[in-house]
Structure formats: C-alpha cells, structure tokens
Amino acid sequence: MRITASPQLLAILPIVRRSGAPLHRQIYDGLRRAILDGLLRPGQRVPATRVLAVELEVSRLPVLSAYEQLLHEGYLQGRVGSGTFVSEALPEDSLRAVAGGHERPPVAGHRVRSRVPPAREDGGLRPFRVSLPALDQFPHDTWSGIVARHARRFDRAHMAYGDPAGLGVLRAAIAEHLRTARAVRCEAEQVLVVSGSQAALRLCAAVLLGQGHRIAVEEPGYPGAHAALGTTGAELIPVPVGADGIDLMALDALGSRVRAAYVTPSHQYPLGASLSAPRRLALLDWARRRDAWLLEDDYDSEYRYVSRPLGALQGMDAHGRVVYIGTFSKVLFPALRIGYLVVPPTSWGAFAAAREAFDLFSPTLYQLALAEFLGEGHFARHLRRMRGVYLHRREALLDGLAEHCADALGVHNADAGLHVATMLPDGVDDVDVVRRLAAHRLTASALSTCYLGRERRSGLLLGFGGFTESQLAQATRTLGQVLRAVP
Amino acid sequence: MRITASPQLLAILPIVRRSGAPLHRQIYDGLRRAILDGLLRPGQRVPATRVLAVELEVSRLPVLSAYEQLLHEGYLQGRVGSGTFVSEALPEDSLRAVAGGHERPPVAGHRVRSRVPPAREDGGLRPFRVSLPALDQFPHDTWSGIVARHARRFDRAHMAYGDPAGLGVLRAAIAEHLRTARAVRCEAEQVLVVSGSQAALRLCAAVLLGQGHRIAVEEPGYPGAHAALGTTGAELIPVPVGADGIDLMALDALGSRVRAAYVTPSHQYPLGASLSAPRRLALLDWARRRDAWLLEDDYDSEYRYVSRPLGALQGMDAHGRVVYIGTFSKVLFPALRIGYLVVPPTSWGAFAAAREAFDLFSPTLYQLALAEFLGEGHFARHLRRMRGVYLHRREALLDGLAEHCADALGVHNADAGLHVATMLPDGVDDVDVVRRLAAHRLTASALSTCYLGRERRSGLLLGFGGFTESQLAQATRTLGQVLRAVP
C-alpha cells in the first residue's frame, strides 16, 4: 500500500528557531537526514510545501527553497499532479552507505527482514487444517449487512470504553443460546465476553492457577490449552484419556493437591470421545470431594453425527465448580475473535477484574453485530444448516480415507466436531508425515504433538469442516500417495 | 432483545428411543422441565413443531401432541402468526417453587443478579474522563464507509485464522507512520499488532518479567500499567518523577538488579512532564550499562501544545533496549481495540510466540479498515485536525479552571495530551472529591491513586479531549462549586 496523503513530519523536523542555521537549511538537513536514515522511504510522499509550512509554523519560502534543493540533488522527485515523493531512483543500499558516517545508529532494516518469519496470511485454508469451519457456507451477505449497518449507526457511547464483561445485549443472547442449546445453567450476568477460547483459558489461569498449583489435563490434549494454562506457573499433570474420555481413576489417584482439571467432555480434543452422563456426574463428584475446579471447554459441541448431543457438564453442576468456556471461532469464523466464559457467581468479581486487566474489553462493533446475529435467529439457522453440510463433508472424508488410505491409516473417531482422529501404524513418525504433506500443500496435525508425556501415539488429525467434498476427495487421494511413499 | 427464531433444543431434549416412555411424553417432559428449570424463559420462542420434529428425527405427531398438552396446561402460549412461546403469564418465582422437588439443582438466577455489578455501558462519556478522544470530531462517515466496504468484501482468507503478528498491510502502515511522525526506527516486520496498550504491557511482562524480577516504574504512574506489569510476579519499584520526568539518579541508585523500566517520556502519565533529549540519552545509557529493558509507552505523544514534539526514545536507541508501545485508543477511538509494539529484532521470536499464546490474533476486519484509514492518509489528516480541536478544548478547560476553581486547584501541567494535571491543597482528600464529583455526573481521576508508595500528592486529573468547549465551561463551574463545598 502506498501512502497517498502527506505524513506527519513534526518529530523528524525539530526546527529550532534560536539555532544559528537558517530555516531553509534546517528543513533541508532534516529531510535529507530522514531520507538517508530510512525514516522516509523511496516512493513515500512528503507533504505539500504549503502543508509543511503550516505544520512547522514557518512561512512557505524556506520550505520551497529546501524542497528545490532536494529535488535538484535527486533526494526528492516531483510527479505532475500527484505531489512530491522521496526519489525511487536511488537504491536503498547506496543510501545506507552514504549515511555511514552519521551520528545516528544505522537502520537495521535488512537484518530484521531475514530474522522474521514470513507472514502467514493464507489463513491456513488448506485441507486438512483442523478447527476450520465451512467458511464458504457462511451467510456472508446477512452478516456483512448487519456489520455494515452497525458500522454506520455506531454512536459515541459505542466508540468509547466498553464494559469489560461485554455488551449486555450480547451477554443476554449468549446466555439464552447456551441455556437452550447446551443446557448450561446461567444468567446473562455470569457471561464474560473475551477474544476467544485461548484468552478464556489464560483468564482461568490468571484467576485460578498460580506458582505451585497443579492442574490435570487430558493426555493427549489440546496444545493451545497447555500453553495457556501454564502461563502463571502451574504444573500440568497429564491424565490418560480412554475410549470414553478422561480416566477418572487416574484423576482421583492424583490425590487432593490438584487445583483444577481441564476437560473437553462433549468432544475430547483430539481423540473425539464423549464423556457419558454417569461419568460426568462422577467427574463433578470428584471436583466436589477434592475442592477442585473443572474448566469445561465445549469447543465444538454443536456438531455430533452418531448420537444425540449431551448437555454441558456445567448444567449438571450443583456446586459451582465448573467454569464453562466457548468460542464462536469454530461455529462462525475464526477472525471474529469472540469467545466467552460462564463463571460461577461466587467467582464473578475475580474473573471480571482479571478480564479488565487482560485487555480491557472486546471491540464493540463485532459485539453489536453478533448480538443481532444471535438475537434474530441467524445463528440457530446457521447451526442447523451446517449440521447437514458437515455430515456430507465428514462422509466425503471417510469415503476418501476408505478408498485411498485404508492400508496406511485407521480411523479412530469421527463421532463429532470438525475433524477425524486417525492412527498411523507403529513406527511411522507422524511429524514427518505432516512435513511431507505440507510439501503437497496439505495441512494435517500430528497426534503425537498433543501429548505432554513420553508415551505418544502416532496419528493424524484431519479437519474436514473447511473443505468441499471434491477438495476432500482430492486431498485423501494425495494423502494416500504420501503415506505409501513413507519409507 | 427477543429471540425471534427458534432456538436449538437438542441438548435439553435428549430423547432416548429405547426408553419405555412414549415419544410425546418424553418431549412434553423435556420441555416442561426446561421451562421449570429456567433453561427456557417466559416469552422465549420455541421451535415450530415441524422444525423440532426434523431436529429430533421423529414424526411430527408426538411433537404436536406434546405442544398441545403444554399449551393446555399454560406452559406454552401461541400467538397467531408469530409462533409458540413460553408463557409469560406464570411468574418466575411460582415456577421455581413448583420446581422445588426436582432432582436438578435450582437455578441461581436471582442470587446472581444481586452479586454482579451493573453493566457499564455509558462508555464513561462524562467530563472529565481521562484518555477519551474527541469522539464527536471523528470522521465517522469515512471510517464507517471503509468498514462497511471491507465487511462486504470480506473473503475466506480474511475469515480464517490470521497472522498473530497482525496483517502485513497494517504493520507496514503503522511502521511508516511511526517512522515519519515519531522518528521510530523500525521495519514493518518489527511491528506486533495487539488489542491495545494494556495487552502490550501484559505481553512485555510475559516475555521480559518473571518471579523475582524487578521493574522500575514512574511514581506517580499509570495504574493500568502497574496492574499489567505485575501479572507475572515481578516486583514494581517506584522511582520518583520530577518536573523533567523520571529521576535518573534514583533509577541508577537501584543498582544492577533491575530488569526493566517502564517510562512515558513524551508525556509522563499522570503529571505531564516531557523527558528532554539529554535525559533521554542518559536513560538509554542507563539501560545499556545495567543491561536493562526500557518499555516506552508513547500513549498520547501526538498532541503537544507548548513546544515541538520530540521523537520517540526508541529512535535514539542504538542498542536494541527499547520496546515501543502505542495504541489507537486515544487517537481514533477506544472501542477499536488496536494497539501495537515495536520489538527489537533480537527479541522478535519470543514476543511473537507470546502474542500468539495470548489470544492468537486481532480481529481481521478492523485491521483491514485501519490499514486503509492510515494508508489513504485519513489518519494523518485526522491528527492534524485534532491538534486544533484539542488546543481549543484545552484552552476552554484552563479558562474555566482559572475562572471557577483558581482558589481551590492549581494547574500543574497542561503541555500535552488529553488531560490536565492539577493539584489540590494539602489535606484535601482527592478520592473524596472524585466521589463528590460523581454525584454531579462528573468523572475525574484522583492523582493519589497513581502512587504505589505511601507518599502521595492530592490532585485531580481532568480530561478535556472528549468534551466540547461548552461542556467544559459548564463542568468547570460545577467543579468549582463542589470544591468550595469540601469541608
């Protein structure tokens, strides 16, 4: 992008009237130095002489004189009808060389570039990226219409500082959705709006976990949660996950010095198990007996393909031990950056204060738009439609795996959510397979990276939510070829 | 807001085909229980029988039968042409009483409400709220036009997961602005987009400060920074601020066990001093000698009224010891939630990783809109216009203080930024004055709350940026009355 209007130059032209040098010389020196130092870059526009004179509170004459000299020497160039620009003819490197003897430190431009990894702006849209919803099926026109309308209506109160807990109208809409769709027992006043489940988990760490605390996490589990929950110095204790979710005997065997457990009861990440109702009650009983917290991450509970969904663990909790965490990243789109917590009333004050200290509040425009999207029923409609879409995409993935990969890959669980957990044969390095897939423009996740301990199963997590049936057919064919080529 | 489309009821109606009870009875029981438990609320719409039958994968007959019974018993009510709703006639409390003997835990609704503070949705728009820009002067049409256009154009790549460092086009625009307007030496690749300066400070704490580390902070200083910088266990050491900024002798006297100093050299918060160029060089020299970091918060450096602005400390740093922090909250509007850091290249990896673990990335739509707003020169134009606006508002505040409050309040510093620091006579409790002002719908900040140590000066921080000249004239009159009434 090109700067087409004049930049602010006040800080790089500190004119001192009392100094001996004439004004035009000071202006010439300041601009020349800024160009040589790289503060002004080739092709960048400089202010019109009239604008700069006003800004510097000097007459236009010295500015004109300085510009003329810089144009004459080739530092600036004029383009008829479009203003004055730093010359593009002089290559940057010769500029730097000229600036060599300068008293200011050299600009580290070129060195910086090589150290910084390239930007990741493709949005990770390649199959089999996990956690990616069907962006092509999103009701784009409805959503953008709502956003555009709120952008135009945006008033002063909505531009200023917002409630750290979130907009009341959004909190009410989220509470209503959670009560009816997830059987969460909550009032709007318990809902805390944050920028996603990553922020929600960090908030839980900030409020509940400190140096010396121990938190049980599922093994294998969600690496993002591990990173977030460890930030305040707590020790993460892996607890094995079996075919029916977290091993409750192993959890209880940790004794009483466990402050909390992080669980994904609706759809265990990454293996996909769902915790049965009796086991949910047993987990709640554990929390009560051990005076521990349960952090329930209900991350893609909306989609179940083989049996009816169970309500949230939170809804069965009679003792206020559950902090419920959800996000709109996987049911709407990731770049929305809105997630939420449902906090037990007794802990509200601590969570609300920590949320404010975190990053004050979430952007107001998207909160307004999302509240309308939920309140007007677009969200419920979207969820209902997406169930059919994902059912077909899941089938396409499973069909493709059966056709192209059956000899090299076993499907472990495909009951729910937006990805399928698969197992690789013993001895096959899943991280190596993921690397090979990347060379074919495919993005899978290695199961082994979800373990904290040394004992790790090898497998691939294959997202299907974000890809059409034909993309998935093509991608499974490539996957089969890559797997067969593994030595 | 009323839910006008049918909600998802899957989780609260877990129909079990194998159970002995007939389907219509299970549906009746499930809905009645959900109403009694408060999962469905009076006035809330329930799905049309046809929709619910599809959702439950049953025929429509048992759903119709269950609805009829619930309508008959008064749990539901039908409105011609607008569907079926939970009855509003039954008061919530009698519902709760009926639900008394139920095996599910009671809903804590009413108790919750009383514990949770009321939402703060007025946006804090009253005089003399500090840090509030002139929202009424914001180029609303230009901005909302840009936002609406990007909302409509929003493509799949922009809906998916974004670069944790920020959109490349925004980072480039920020870098160009900082180089020319603030003499910051940076490449786009050093710019890290975050959700505001609060998040930026927390990020600095996460990367640079840990248990046992000591960080020097200005005394008095910015309470928000104190909260953020202490989150990872570092000890905050207050260093006195004089008429020309932080006391460098006192800083150096802390010895070598100081990991970092948090400074506001352009406009010290809250007292307003600007650090002179020689003192900036001395501060940089201290950081080099002590191998310490400087966290430069350049929070409202754009506005100076009495002398030319100095370039950023960062631009004078030859040893990569400065992390530069800025935000758009005070130059555009707070609800934008976009701030940034400029990170020395050698520390890029640690900062980028911590930023991703923080909350992944910032919402993409506003990043796109802001990049265009900067790139097309609207931002530079807005800053230029605002200088004049704030100059007049500041004058109105100072005139009002001279006319109405001269006997009770001394102006300490009004050189820069969006607020004026004032001093109260010894013995006057500024927190008490702030409380009295609140009763007159005025929002001032107490200077004494900016101190970490016991020795505190009493004063008021009076924001003028967000208020018209007539508002300020009126508010200063009220302020004078309140001050004269203090016993």
Can you summarize this structure?
The structure is a homodimer of 487-residue chains. The first copy, chain A, has helices at residues 23-37, 49-56, 60-73, 92-98, 109-115, 140-153, 156-159, 168-182, 197-208, 223-229, 248-253, 277-289, 348-359, 364-375, 378-404, 430-439, 469-485; strands spanning 45-46, 76-79, 83-86, 191-194, 214-219, 235-242, 245-246, 260-263, 293-297, 322-327, 339-342, 410-413, 419-423, 445-446, 459-463. With 487 residues, chain A is an alpha/beta fold.
The proportion of residues in beta strands of chain A is: 5-15%
Helix tally of chain A equals 17
**Major pleated sheet of chain A:** 8 strands, mixed
Strand order of the largest sheet of chain A: 4-11-10-9-8-5-6-7
Distance between the termini of chain A: 47 Å
Q: Most extensive interface, residues per chain?
A: A-B, 133 and 131 residues
| Count of distinct strands of chain A | 15
- Average pLDDT of chain A, to the nearest integer? 87
Shape of chain A: globular
The stretches of 5 or more residues of chain A where confidence is low (pLDDT under 50) are 1-6, 96-119
The percentage helix of chain A is 40-55%
Q: What is the structural class of chain A?
A: alpha/beta
Radius of gyration of chain A, in angstroms, nearest whole number: 29 Å
Task: Report the oligomer.
Answer: homodimer
